[in-house]
Amino acid sequence: MRQWKQFKIKLTTQTPFRIGGVKPAIETTVESPVVRLGDKIVVQGTSLKGAYRAELERYFIDTFFDKTNKKWREQWLKPCIPADEKTISPDERKLVNKGFYKYSCKYPQREKDYPSSERYICPVCYLLGAQGLIGFIHVPFLNLTKGNAEPLAFIRKDRIAGVSARGALAKFEGIPSGSVFEGIMNVLIQDDVTGWSLGQKRDLADSLGDKWLETNEWNKDRIETELIINRLQSIKHLGGYISKGFGLIDIKVEQSK
To answer: Are the CB atoms for 203 and 27 separated by under 8 Å?
Structure first.
Protein backbone atom coordinates (compact mmCIF):
# COMPACT_ATOMS: atom_id res chain seq x y z
CA MET A 1 0.00 0.00 0.00
CA ARG A 2 1.18 3.52 -0.81
CA GLN A 3 0.37 6.63 1.18
CA TRP A 4 0.43 9.94 -0.67
CA LYS A 5 0.12 13.57 0.39
CA GLN A 6 -1.20 16.10 -2.08
CA PHE A 7 -0.14 19.74 -2.35
CA LYS A 8 -2.00 22.37 -4.34
CA ILE A 9 0.28 24.60 -6.43
CA LYS A 10 -1.02 28.01 -7.53
CA LEU A 11 1.19 29.99 -9.91
CA THR A 12 0.24 33.64 -10.53
CA THR A 13 2.01 35.60 -13.27
CA GLN A 14 3.42 38.94 -12.09
CA THR A 15 4.50 40.02 -15.58
CA PRO A 16 3.66 38.73 -19.06
CA PHE A 17 4.58 35.05 -19.21
CA ARG A 18 5.26 32.40 -21.81
CA ILE A 19 6.66 28.94 -22.30
CA GLY A 20 7.02 28.27 -26.00
CA GLY A 21 5.12 25.43 -27.61
CA VAL A 22 4.99 23.69 -30.99
CA LYS A 23 3.57 25.61 -33.91
CA PRO A 24 0.23 24.00 -34.91
CA ALA A 25 -0.13 22.24 -38.24
CA ILE A 26 -3.10 24.41 -39.20
CA GLU A 27 -2.46 27.75 -40.87
CA THR A 28 -1.99 30.49 -38.27
CA THR A 29 -0.50 33.95 -38.05
CA VAL A 30 1.17 33.08 -34.74
CA GLU A 31 4.75 31.98 -35.34
CA SER A 32 5.53 31.04 -31.73
CA PRO A 33 2.57 29.83 -29.64
CA VAL A 34 2.58 28.99 -25.94
CA VAL A 35 2.67 25.34 -24.93
CA ARG A 36 -0.62 23.44 -24.91
CA LEU A 37 -1.76 19.96 -23.96
CA GLY A 38 -4.77 19.27 -26.12
CA ASP A 39 -6.81 22.45 -25.91
CA LYS A 40 -5.44 23.48 -22.51
CA ILE A 41 -2.67 26.01 -21.97
CA VAL A 42 -0.21 24.53 -19.48
CA VAL A 43 3.08 24.83 -17.68
CA GLN A 44 4.53 21.41 -18.40
CA GLY A 45 5.93 19.37 -15.55
CA THR A 46 9.44 19.38 -17.02
CA SER A 47 9.62 23.19 -16.89
CA LEU A 48 8.38 23.37 -13.30
CA LYS A 49 10.63 20.48 -12.27
CA GLY A 50 13.67 22.15 -13.80
CA ALA A 51 13.03 25.40 -11.94
CA TYR A 52 12.35 23.52 -8.71
CA ARG A 53 15.52 21.46 -9.04
CA ALA A 54 17.54 24.63 -9.60
CA GLU A 55 16.08 26.16 -6.41
CA LEU A 56 16.92 23.04 -4.42
CA GLU A 57 20.50 23.00 -5.71
CA ARG A 58 20.94 26.70 -4.91
CA TYR A 59 19.49 26.23 -1.43
CA PHE A 60 21.93 23.44 -0.51
CA ILE A 61 24.93 25.33 -1.91
CA ASP A 62 24.00 28.64 -0.26
CA THR A 63 23.15 27.03 3.08
CA PHE A 64 25.67 24.25 3.56
CA PHE A 65 28.75 25.10 1.44
CA ASP A 66 31.49 27.22 3.00
CA LYS A 67 32.61 29.28 0.02
CA THR A 68 35.60 30.69 1.93
CA ASN A 69 37.13 27.33 2.78
CA LYS A 70 35.51 25.56 -0.18
CA LYS A 71 34.16 22.79 2.02
CA TRP A 72 30.75 21.28 2.62
CA ARG A 73 29.41 21.28 6.17
CA GLU A 74 28.16 17.80 5.34
CA GLN A 75 29.62 16.06 2.27
CA TRP A 76 26.43 14.12 1.54
CA LEU A 77 24.40 17.31 1.01
CA LYS A 78 26.32 18.17 -2.17
CA PRO A 79 23.87 18.07 -5.13
CA CYS A 80 24.68 16.49 -8.46
CA ILE A 81 24.66 17.73 -12.02
CA PRO A 82 22.60 15.23 -14.07
CA ALA A 83 25.50 14.53 -16.42
CA ASP A 84 28.59 12.34 -16.54
CA GLU A 85 32.12 12.78 -17.88
CA LYS A 86 30.90 12.29 -21.47
CA THR A 87 27.87 14.61 -21.44
CA ILE A 88 28.81 17.40 -19.04
CA SER A 89 29.36 20.85 -20.52
CA PRO A 90 32.57 22.86 -19.97
CA ASP A 91 30.73 25.35 -17.74
CA GLU A 92 29.18 22.55 -15.67
CA ARG A 93 32.59 20.94 -15.29
CA LYS A 94 33.87 24.18 -13.74
CA LEU A 95 31.12 23.96 -11.10
CA VAL A 96 32.13 20.38 -10.32
CA ASN A 97 35.80 21.36 -10.08
CA LYS A 98 34.93 24.21 -7.70
CA GLY A 99 33.25 21.69 -5.39
CA PHE A 100 29.68 22.92 -5.76
CA TYR A 101 28.42 19.74 -7.45
CA LYS A 102 29.26 16.10 -7.99
CA TYR A 103 28.52 14.08 -11.11
CA SER A 104 25.18 12.42 -11.82
CA CYS A 105 23.39 10.23 -9.27
CA LYS A 106 22.68 7.63 -11.99
CA TYR A 107 21.66 4.33 -10.34
CA PRO A 108 23.02 1.71 -9.79
CA GLN A 109 26.29 3.23 -8.55
CA ARG A 110 28.63 0.28 -8.63
CA GLU A 111 31.91 0.66 -6.81
CA LYS A 112 33.99 0.11 -9.95
CA ASP A 113 32.28 3.05 -11.69
CA TYR A 114 32.11 5.61 -8.87
CA PRO A 115 34.61 6.87 -6.29
CA SER A 116 33.42 6.22 -2.73
CA SER A 117 32.93 9.96 -2.17
CA GLU A 118 30.28 10.07 -4.91
CA ARG A 119 28.45 6.76 -4.47
CA TYR A 120 25.58 8.40 -2.60
CA ILE A 121 22.22 9.73 -3.78
CA CYS A 122 22.11 13.49 -3.33
CA PRO A 123 19.09 15.03 -1.54
CA VAL A 124 17.82 16.61 -4.76
CA CYS A 125 17.70 13.23 -6.52
CA TYR A 126 16.22 11.66 -3.38
CA LEU A 127 13.20 13.91 -3.87
CA LEU A 128 12.99 14.16 -7.67
CA GLY A 129 14.56 10.90 -8.80
CA ALA A 130 17.68 10.02 -10.76
CA GLN A 131 18.38 7.99 -13.87
CA GLY A 132 17.30 4.46 -12.91
CA LEU A 133 15.76 5.50 -9.58
CA ILE A 134 12.42 7.18 -8.90
CA GLY A 135 12.01 9.86 -6.26
CA PHE A 136 9.30 10.85 -3.81
CA ILE A 137 7.82 13.81 -5.68
CA HIS A 138 5.70 13.73 -8.84
CA VAL A 139 5.89 17.27 -10.26
CA PRO A 140 2.61 18.05 -12.07
CA PHE A 141 1.51 19.96 -15.13
CA LEU A 142 -0.16 23.24 -14.18
CA ASN A 143 -3.33 24.18 -16.09
CA LEU A 144 -4.28 27.78 -16.88
CA THR A 145 -7.42 28.53 -14.82
CA LYS A 146 -7.52 32.32 -15.16
CA GLY A 147 -6.45 34.29 -18.22
CA ASN A 148 -5.74 33.33 -21.81
CA ALA A 149 -3.08 33.50 -24.46
CA GLU A 150 -2.91 36.80 -26.31
CA PRO A 151 -1.11 37.62 -29.56
CA LEU A 152 1.94 39.85 -29.28
CA ALA A 153 4.53 41.12 -31.71
CA PHE A 154 8.05 42.43 -31.51
CA ILE A 155 10.34 44.08 -34.02
CA ARG A 156 14.08 43.49 -34.12
CA LYS A 157 16.16 46.65 -34.42
CA ASP A 158 18.90 47.05 -37.02
CA ARG A 159 21.98 47.74 -34.88
CA ILE A 160 23.74 49.72 -37.67
CA ALA A 161 20.90 51.78 -39.14
CA GLY A 162 19.19 52.29 -35.78
CA VAL A 163 15.78 51.49 -37.25
CA SER A 164 13.57 48.42 -37.50
CA ALA A 165 15.23 45.61 -39.41
CA ARG A 166 13.57 44.56 -42.66
CA GLY A 167 11.36 41.51 -42.23
CA ALA A 168 11.99 41.49 -38.49
CA LEU A 169 8.35 41.51 -37.31
CA ALA A 170 7.56 38.34 -35.36
CA LYS A 171 4.19 37.34 -33.90
CA PHE A 172 3.95 35.19 -30.80
CA GLU A 173 1.64 34.40 -27.88
CA GLY A 174 1.98 35.50 -24.29
CA ILE A 175 0.03 35.11 -21.07
CA PRO A 176 -0.92 38.43 -19.37
CA SER A 177 0.14 39.32 -15.83
CA GLY A 178 -2.42 38.30 -13.21
CA SER A 179 -3.11 34.96 -14.91
CA VAL A 180 -3.28 31.82 -12.79
CA PHE A 181 -2.04 28.25 -13.34
CA GLU A 182 -2.98 25.48 -10.88
CA GLY A 183 -2.13 21.82 -10.31
CA ILE A 184 -1.85 19.08 -7.69
CA MET A 185 1.55 17.66 -6.73
CA ASN A 186 1.71 14.17 -5.22
CA VAL A 187 4.36 13.32 -2.62
CA LEU A 188 5.00 9.73 -1.56
CA ILE A 189 4.92 9.44 2.23
CA GLN A 190 5.06 5.68 2.72
CA ASP A 191 5.37 2.59 0.51
CA ASP A 192 4.81 -0.66 2.39
CA VAL A 193 6.19 -2.81 -0.46
CA THR A 194 9.56 -1.10 -0.91
CA GLY A 195 9.76 0.03 2.70
CA TRP A 196 10.40 3.62 1.62
CA SER A 197 9.29 6.45 3.92
CA LEU A 198 9.80 10.14 3.28
CA GLY A 199 12.59 11.37 5.54
CA GLN A 200 14.14 7.94 6.04
CA LYS A 201 17.17 6.35 4.35
CA ARG A 202 16.30 3.78 1.69
CA ASP A 203 17.86 0.32 1.48
CA LEU A 204 19.63 0.48 -1.89
CA ALA A 205 21.83 -2.38 -3.10
CA ASP A 206 24.36 -0.74 -5.43
CA SER A 207 24.94 2.60 -3.69
CA LEU A 208 25.86 4.13 -0.37
CA GLY A 209 22.33 5.48 -0.60
CA ASP A 210 20.79 8.42 1.20
CA LYS A 211 23.75 9.23 3.46
CA TRP A 212 22.43 12.73 4.21
CA LEU A 213 19.58 11.20 6.23
CA GLU A 214 21.83 9.26 8.61
CA THR A 215 22.42 12.27 10.89
CA ASN A 216 18.73 12.50 11.92
CA GLU A 217 18.80 16.25 11.25
CA TRP A 218 16.12 15.79 8.62
CA ASN A 219 12.65 14.33 9.16
CA LYS A 220 9.44 14.26 7.14
CA ASP A 221 8.10 17.55 8.51
CA ARG A 222 11.32 19.46 7.88
CA ILE A 223 11.58 18.04 4.36
CA GLU A 224 7.97 18.99 3.59
CA THR A 225 8.41 22.55 4.85
CA GLU A 226 12.01 23.41 3.98
CA LEU A 227 12.62 21.38 0.83
CA ILE A 228 9.18 21.13 -0.75
CA ILE A 229 6.90 24.04 0.18
CA ASN A 230 9.53 26.74 0.77
CA ARG A 231 11.65 25.83 -2.24
CA LEU A 232 8.71 25.79 -4.63
CA GLN A 233 7.58 29.15 -3.28
CA SER A 234 11.08 30.54 -3.78
CA ILE A 235 10.80 30.14 -7.58
CA LYS A 236 10.42 33.69 -8.90
CA HIS A 237 11.16 33.34 -12.61
CA LEU A 238 9.98 30.77 -15.12
CA GLY A 239 9.66 30.48 -18.88
CA GLY A 240 11.22 32.38 -21.75
CA TYR A 241 11.79 35.97 -22.84
CA ILE A 242 12.95 36.97 -19.35
CA SER A 243 15.25 39.60 -20.92
CA LYS A 244 12.14 41.11 -22.56
CA GLY A 245 10.41 41.55 -19.19
CA PHE A 246 8.58 38.22 -19.11
CA GLY A 247 8.58 35.41 -16.55
CA LEU A 248 8.17 36.96 -13.08
CA ILE A 249 5.86 34.69 -11.08
CA ASP A 250 4.55 34.00 -7.59
CA ILE A 251 3.92 30.45 -6.36
CA LYS A 252 1.82 29.47 -3.36
CA VAL A 253 1.76 25.88 -2.06
CA GLU A 254 -0.64 24.43 0.46
CA GLN A 255 -1.63 20.93 1.47
CA SER A 256 -4.67 19.77 -0.45
CA LYS A 257 -7.64 18.82 1.72
So the answer is: no
Contacts of 246 (CB under 8 A, 6+ apart): 15, 16, 17, 18, 174, 239, 240
Cα–Cα distance measured from residue 36 to residue 22, given in angstroms and rounded to the nearest whole number: 8
pLDDT of residue 85: 79
Domain boundaries defined on the chain: 2-148+176-255
The phi and psi torsions of 172 (rounded to 5 degrees) equal -145, 175
- Please state the three-class secondary structure of 96-156 as a single string: HHCCCCECCCCCCCCCCCCCHHHCECCHHHHHHCECCECCCEECCCEEEEECCCEEEEEEE
Burial of 232 (0-12, 13-18, 19+ CB in 10 A): buried
| 23-28: long-range pairs with CB below 8 Å, 24+ | none
- Do residues 227 and 64 touch, judged by C-beta distance below 8 A? no
pLDDT for 166: 56
Q: 3-class SS at 67?
A: coil
Q: Has residue 12 got a pLDDT over 50?
A: yes
Instruction: Indicate whether 28 pLDDT > 80.
Output: no
Span 189-235, pLDDT tens digits: 999 999 999 999 999 988 889 999 998 899 999 999 999 999 999 99
Pairing outcome for strands 180-191 and 196-197 = antiparallel
**Where would I find the H helices in the chain?**
45-64, 90-97, 123-128, 220-222, 230-233
Q: Is 245 helix (H, G, I), strand (E, B) or coil?
A: coil
Residue 20: closest CA among 220, 217, 241:
241
How many residues are there in the chain?
257
Torsion of CA 78, 242, 20, 172, to 10 degrees: 180
